Amino acid sequence: MPRLLRFVDFALLFASAASLITGLVFAALGKSTVSQALWLAGTVPVLLALSVSIIQALRRREAGVDVLALLAIAFALTLGEFLTAAVIALMLASGRALENYAQERARREMTALLSHAPRHANRFEAGEWRRVELDVVSPGDRLLVRSGEFVPVDGTLAGLAELDESSLTGESNPQQRSPGAAVRSGVINVGAAFEMVASASAHDSTFAGIVRMVQAAQQERSPAARLADRYALLFVPAALVLAGGSWLVTGDAVRALAVLVVATPCPLLLAVPVAIASGMSVCAKRGVLVKGGGALERLAQATALFFDKTGTLTSGQARLVEVESAPGMSSDAVLQFAGSLAQASAHVISEGVTTAARERNLALRAPSHVVEQPGAGVAGNVDGREVAIGSFAYVSSVATPAPWTTTFLQRVAYEGASAVFVSVDSKMVGAIRMADQIRLETPRALRLLRQEGIRRLVMLTGDRRDVAETVGAALGVTEVRPEQTPEDKLAAIQAARREGTVIMVGDGVNDAPALASADVGVAMGARGAAASSEAADVVLLVDRLDRLVEALRVARRTRRIAVQSVVAGMALSFAAMAVAAFGYLPPLLGAMLQELIDVAAIASALRALRIRSTAVTGVLAHGDVDRLKAAHVELGPVMEQIRGLADELPRLPKASVAGALASMNESLARQLVPHEQHDDTEVYPDLARLVGGEDPMAAMSGMHREIFRIARLLRQMTADVPPEGPDAQSVREFQRLLYGLDAIVRLHCAQEDELFHALGESP
User: Fold this and answer.
1) What is the pLDDT of residues 671-719, one digit of tens each?
2) What is the tens place of the pLDDT at every residue in 540-573?
3) Cα distance between residue 395 and residue 399, in whole Å
4) Do 504 and 431 share a domain, yes or no?
5) How do 368-373 and 194-198 pair as beta strands?
6) What is the spatial distance between Cα 93 and Cα 46, in angstroms, rounded to a whole number?
7) Does 412 lie in the same domain as 391?
8) Domain end marker among 178, 201, 224
9) Are residues 651 and 743 located together in one domain of the fold?
10) Is it the case that residue 189 has pLDDT exceeding 50?
11) Higher pLDDT, 461 or 374
12) What is the structure's pLDDT at 326?
């Protein structure tokens, strides 16, 4: 049906344009009867289509600017002003076609967004596994879910399973489920293949239920009145009163027609679609797909923003946070052993460990005799050493737990992170903390959204309360609502819409109902779930949250340009209507004048194409950004050494303190201090020119000076340590400086990474 309607609109445009031009040719040849017939033939189809759309709008209890166009065309035909009617018909058809073109252009950007939804299942039949259509699966069927596949229907596990449930629950870490546990459709198997028994058909499963919620939410959401329709509430009655009044006072129907002709609301019919289409084009160039003009208009009016956590505020992938190493073992050695063995595993956490080791430029060895226990860990031989990595329970079964593991596990639990423990030759040598980290652009994006007038920032997530509140506190959001189901998110959006225009941002299947219900649903489409992209009004095709800021700015400026164009066009139309009401403007001349008014309104609306992004992008090449970030990764071992020494200092023998501090000072002098000096003298001047302002890097440079001060103070204090070692008060002072240095360096690197990311080219 949408395709048929688009065809009809463009056919009407072609017919009206062809009949008008051909009629003018015959009129020039003196064949007025033929020209009038042509103009009538081109006008009647537009009149009929316009009548149908008005009737449909009235059934929906909507009124718009089309009423004036209908009256003007019908009145012109009644009075025999066929050329005037043809001109009005062409203007109307061009407006409808233009708006449809803008929406179709947005639709063409979309791919098969539901291609990842479960469509098939592997069912056990006649002694073998057969691929069957999802619709034929029944409760009680025995199914096989291979690694990387979506769970097709709800069911019960027949064996151990490792599942990525983030699309449904928002929990970023893979979850291990035991035999007999319930499993829901739409989650991904990230471990070994497992068997399950279906407990529901596809129609009654979780994924299908969410799809039905999306459809219901879309039907219940009443569309906001279009910008042109809102102005029509003023313009239409005024034009009708003026036309009727001139006819009533003078008795001249032609004068009333002239008023209606210049009152034909083409500034509304054309200027608004032109501005909106231009704004949508600007958004598309920045990687933001807006599916319709209505979505762009609603985006411009938004005052509240709701968003999911995993994959939206955070990256959705496990990244290295810290490496805990046992005494006598360096963090690099722990990561090197773990990364070497992890190469043999396809587990998502193993891939993260290997990536982290490579980012630190560690030489990885090829493992041998690898044995993997799905969902638990991996064991093998690395350089002749027996290495095991995995969960605490798995590694504890082959190595004696170390004293530091209790505190480490508590810290991991507080932050909702994942822990990979490492043993070498049956000795637990360290652990690696992995977590779904906040996106680099997220803090800046939220700050800019507040500047753009978003007063309410609410995080809706299926994560645990402690994890959600930690992220919320770090970002300074207005509200945090943890442990949210799809139904909870939907209810929250529906309640918020009663207070104003609401944006919802998400990327998972569980976000789809809320996205469909929100005034503007925004999906992280670069890596997000297909269902969320399908339900959303706006899709961020580039995996960056700050693109939403640019879309919001473009939407608001586009709306402002559209309003200016409409007001200017209406003012000119009112002036022409007044002239026509006094009899100084005949209908045909009025139609020509109206064309000039339309051109002026359209030219004004086209200013939306010149909207420029205020974000600073494309000023640092990918290579420069990667190089600057890589330098911070290389500082990772130094930061871990600072933190580790601060923790260990009170337990060290007094005679060993001076040596440990000297080693620390050597690392600072060899790596940290030269790095910061290079940034201050070589990198910051270039960044300052890109950022702009008198001294934009002053605060960042001030942190450099504090790092230099603490490093120098540590060196001086170490030189004064007596041979027998420092006293308790000196140890506490060393700890204070080390903890302070650790906090400053980590914060400083995080701020620089955010700046590099903001200044970098878009992927």
Assistant:
1) 999 998 888 888 888 888 777 776 788 888 888 888 998 988 888 888 8
2) 877 778 888 888 999 999 888 888 888 887 788 8
3) 6
4) no
5) unpaired
6) 7
7) yes
8) 201
9) yes
10) yes
11) 461
12) 84
Q: Does residue 590 register a pLDDT over 50?
A: yes
Number of structural domains the chain divides into:
4
Which residues does 185 contact at the CB level (< 8 Å), separation at least 6? 118, 150, 151, 152, 153, 154, 202, 205, 206, 207, 208
Catalytic machinery residues: 308
Which tokens is 349 given?
């956490």
What size, in residues, is the chain? 763
d(CA 566, CA 601): 7
Tell me the DSSP string of 554-607: HHHHHHHHHHHHHHHHHHHHHHHHHHHHTT-S-HHHHHHHHHHHHHHHHHHHGG
Q: What is the 3-state secondary structure (H, E, C) of 379-447?
A: EEEECCEEEEEECHHHHHCCCECCCCHHHHHHHHHHHCCEEEEEEECCEEEEEEEEEEEECCCHHHHHH
Both tokens assigned to 548: 């939403």
CA–CA separation, 270 and 565 (whole Å): 10
The C-alpha torsion from 434 through 435 and 436 to 439, rounded to 10°, is -90
Coil/strand/helix, residue 126: coil
Q: How far is CA 41 from CA 19, 27, 34, 75, 587, in A?
A: 7, 15, 10, 16, 20
Cβ burial of 93 (10 Å; 0-12, 13-18, 19+) is: buried
Q: How far apart are CA 468 and CA 521, in angstroms?
A: 22
The whole-angstrom separation of Cα 276 and Cα 108 is: 17
Asked if residue 666 has pLDDT above 80, the reply is yes
The answer as to whether 718 is a domain residue is yes
* Mean pLDDT, the chain, whole residue set: 80
CA distance 509 to 184: 12
416 within some domain:
yes
Beta-bridge partner residues of 719: none
User: Within this chain, do residues 403 and 474 fall inside the same structural domain, yes or no?
Assistant: no
Measured CA to CA, the distance from residue 264 to residue 80 in angstroms comes to: 18
Q: For the domain that residue 455 is a member of, what is the CATH number?
A: 3.40.50.1000
User: What pLDDT is recorded for position 618?
Assistant: 45
Tell me the per-residue pLDDT of 229-249, one tens digit each, with 9 for 90 and over. 666 667 778 877 888 888 888
Residues 39-61 have a mean pLDDT of 81
From CA 68, how far away is CA 267, in angstroms rounded?
12
Q: Which residue, among 640, 630, 646, 562, has the nearest Cα to 602 in the 3D structure?
A: 562
Q: Please tell me whether residues 520 and 536 are part of one structural domain.
A: yes
The whole-number pLDDT of residue 232 equals 65
Contact 321, 434 (CB under 8 A): yes
Residues 704, 712: Cα–Cα separation, whole Å: 12
Helical H segments across 617-727, by residue range: 622-634, 636-648, 654-667, 673-678, 684-691, 698-719
pTM over 0.85: no
Percent of the chain at pLDDT above 70?
Answer: 85
Same domain, 330 and 402: yes
> Residue 564 class from Cβ within 10 Å (0-12 exposed, 13-18 middle, 19+ buried)?
middle
Query: With 60 as the cut, is the pLDDT of residue 530 above it?
Result: no
pLDDT band at 609 (very low <50, low <70, confident <90, very high): confident
Q: Going by DSSP bridges, is the β-strand pair 538-540/520-523 parallel, antiparallel, or unpaired? A: parallel
Domain that holds residue 151: 120-201
Stretch 341-348: mean pLDDT: 82
